[in-house]
Write a structure and sequence with these properties.
Blueprint: H1 4-14, H2 46-59, E1 62-63, H3 64-73, H4 79-83, H5 93-96, H6 98-114, E2 120-126, H7 132-143, H8 145-148, E3 152-158, H9 162-173, E4 177-179, E5 188-191, E6 197-201, E7 212-217, E8 226-231, E9 234-243, E10 246-254, H10 260-265, E11 274-277, H11 279-295, E12 297-306, E13 315-318, E14 321-323, E15 333-335, E16 338-339, H12 340-346, E17 352-358, H13 359-365, H14 368-378, H15 382-396, H16 398-404, E18 405-411, H17 413-416
Parallel strand pairs: 2-3, 2-7, 3-6, 7-12, 12-16
Antiparallel strand pairs: 1-9, 4-5, 5-6, 8-9, 8-11, 9-10, 12-18, 13-14, 13-15, 17-18
The chain binds S-adenosyl-L-homocysteine (SAH).
S-adenosyl-L-homocysteine binds at residues 72-73, 80, 86, 92, 94-95, 127-129, 133, 158-161, 164, 217-219, 222.
Length: 443
């Protein structure tokens, strides 16, 4: 069990870390820009658009989910598989500040201690981007090495993009990795700069079972969504089709009748007129829930999103500007807000969920102010201090990432409530609050 004082001690122990590589500056998140005007000519989408036009001509309209999957992860031409995008088209919190990953690292160590310090844990990151977040978490694990010395830690990265897995390998191992043969679950492996084994996989199903901490930062918003519109005749699915007025362009249409997805995904009590559903996120949560229920551990999910209230959030980003989702697929990031109420439902009571809470609340509860103070005190020059303040503002300002991003956790029920059978004298002591989601632990 970890009393608040021990958690403060964790933070204090990690505070010795210095500032990491120079932080990117002056790249505001393109959150509030108006959509770019839609070009009326030219099939600028290249490979994905050509492929989609052939498919649409042959088999008719596609669901938005099929369209999004092709645009983002088509093996040869998809946005993530070919372009990578992080930093180039959109900026994420781990790229803005090292503090995010450090505090997340402390969160995992705190949960590991609360679980009675098991002899081994896996850290599983879904969609690691450039690898910056895991790099910052690993720096904390190194700083807390005396605490973790008897624990067998390994890193497991789920990444579909060969291009980004190379970037991650460079960031985390200095490029010292080896490819595995096709029959192995992991397609690549290496050793981190801090001496921890790292494995890469194409899907969560390939990651070995065992006590694990999961991390999904801006991952679920990249998974394909279905879109539905309420009409006088009932719910219809939004589909993507060729624009009859411009045969090299795409447009949205409505399915003429209900589709299997409208039957399955719209709840009878739904009050909105437009709904987005991400079944892949639902399946992922079910998988995580089964694993955490069986093996223990925890998942931390951070993303922009809502609690079942928003309607049309599907959008594209290219070069830090909003981009029409139907133009030049494969060249822009496509994303939709995460529906946390759907994730909670898909956990099916197997595990407990906490949140979503705003990023700025989570980070405040985790001690971000103290961490920043120490970094500022230890920064020799005013340029570094200015960068640190800028990154703090990006993370915490409600108008920037502070209110837009949410933290959501999955935990075994036993982490929050004593099971009756084991409710003996010893277990009557209160369970420690989960860091970040509870009261301010560091005053
Ligand atoms: N977590 C990082 C990157 C977010 S971008 C950050 O916050 O900075 C989304 C990441 O998910 C990229 O690494 C992308 O290649 C990966 N990704 C997208 N769809 C995926 C899928 N279906 N399976 C595995 N990885 C995927």
């Amino acid at each position: 069990m970890v009393p608040p004082s021990a958690r403060s001690a964790l933070l204090a122990a990690a505070l010795g870390l210095g500032a990491r590589r120079p932080l990117p500056r002056g790249r505001p998140a393109p959150l509030l820009l108006a959509p770019a005007a839609r070009p009326r000519s030219g099939a600028a989408g290249g490979g994905v658009l050509r492929h989609l036009l052939l498919k649409l001509r042959a088999t008719g309209p596609l669901t938005v989910a099929e369209y999004m999957r092709e645009a983002l992860t088509n093996p040869g031409q998809g946005y993530y598989t070919r372009r990578g995008g992080v930093g180039q088209d959109f900026v994420t919190a781990p790229e803005v500040s090292q503090v995010l990953g450090e505090l997340i690292g402390i969160w995992y160590v705190s949960e590991w201690m609360a679980a009675g310090r098991p002899g081994a844990f896996q850290l599983v990151e879904l969609g690691p981007g450039t690898g910056a977040l895991t790099d910052d978490v690993l720096r904390v694990f190194k700083q807390l090495a005396s605490l973790l010395s008897k624990c067998d830690v390994s890193i497991h990265l789920v990444e579909v993009s060969p291009k980004l897995s190379e970037t991650q390998a460079q960031m985390l191992t200095g490029g010292k990795v080896q490819s595995n043969s096709e029959d192995e679950a992991a397609y690549m492996k290496g050793i981190s700069k801090t001496g921890i084994p790292i494995y890469w996989y194409r899907g969560i199903q390939d990651v070995p079972q065992g006590y694990s901490f999961y991390l999904a930062h801006e991952f679920l918003d990249a998974l394909p969504i279905h879109k539905f519109q309420r009409t006088e005749k009932g719910w219809r699915e939004v589909l993507v089709d060729i624009d009859p007025e411009a045969p090299d362009q795409l447009r949205f249409v409505l399915s003429p009748s209900s589709t299997p997805a409208t039957e399955n995904f719209i709840q009878p009590e739904e009050t909105r007129d437009h709904v987005e559903v991400c079944p892949e996120a639902g399946v992922l949560i079910q998988r995580l829930a089964c694993r955490i229920e069986k093996d223990g551990g925890a998942a931390l999910i951070a993303d922009y999103g809502h609690d079942g209230t928003k309607t049309d959030t599907f959008r594209g980003f290219r070069n830090h500007k909003l981009h029409d989702v139907l133009v030049a697929p494969g060249t822009a990031d496509l994303t939709a807000d995460v529906d946390f109420s759907y994730l909670r439902k898909m956990a099916q009571g197997k595990i407990a969920t906490l949140g979503p809470i705003k990023q700025r609340e989570f980070l405040k509860n985790m001690g971000v102010d103290l961490r920043m103070q120490v970094l500022l005190q230890n920064s020799p020059d005013s340029a570094t201090r200015e960068q640190l303040l800028h990154s703090y503002d990006m993370l915490m300002n409600p108008e920037k990432m502070g209110d837009r991003f949410n933290f959501f956790a999955l935990l075994p029920h036993r982490r929050l409530t004593h099971p009756h059978k084991e409710h003996d004298l010893h277990s009557k002591s209160p369970l420690p609050p989960v860091a970040g989601f509870g009261e301010l632990l560091l005053k």
